[in-house]
Write the structure tokens for this entry.
Amino acid sequence: MFDGLISGGLARVIAESVKPENLMEIRLRVGRRLLLLSSTGNGQRVYPRFAGGAYVVTREDIDGILARATNMSPYSVSDEMIKGYIPYKSLRIGVGGEGVSDGGRLLNVKNVSYLTIRIPHQIKNAADKLIDSVREIDSGDVSNTLIISPPAGGKTTVLRELARVLSDKKNVVVIDERYELACVCGGVPTLDIGDCDVVSGVPKVVAYENCIRAMNPDVIVTDEIFKTAEVSAICDVLRSGVKVIASVHGGSVDDLTRSETYSELIRKFDLAVVLGKNPVGQIKEIVRL
């Protein structure tokens, strides 16, 4: 279930508390209750029981997961840890602890005491209600599309499915900086993304330019746009004639329109799809921009 990341009593407690197909996140904090997020009940929060009380996360739990995730070598993933996560096979592990910095630059993370393990789920009908809006039926042309939602609103699931479906007729490149879209392990996707090419772990502003020059994409599908530099790079991609499908945090089109950082995206994209969290992945509106 956890690709060897979690074992023993902790794995049993989790398996007994939430069905594998419903498990979305595992949150571990040293000295505090283990928390599981389930897809049932619009994001149910589950606190597993153990020996008559709540299961309390220990330092040994955290250290054991880190050791297995890094193959006993935290320095091998230091670049990712600085960005706040560790990729492990099909999983992504968010990391919290004490930062080590120099001159305002984060150099390392020590005393890791907080882990958030996100469990990817593939839902192969997640884009069924969108595909005719994203891809014109007669011409087959693809609209530049923004997927907008709050955190944990289903953006990644929808992006992954759009990439898979569109790759049947288009050259699609997935830029997966944080290893969430394709869940690459050893360079190979662990989820079905169709006939897409995948670039993982590369900063978007670098990957965009390299992909356009070297991989001849018709469509680029990319995970969350966050920084001003990423917005500028995406606009450069659009000017090159390559179609883009991307995600961004937000609650509505108006939220992005009012944002100094994201307003340019609203001006440059063709379509916005707003997702809600009740239930996760619910389509609240589709807006032609």
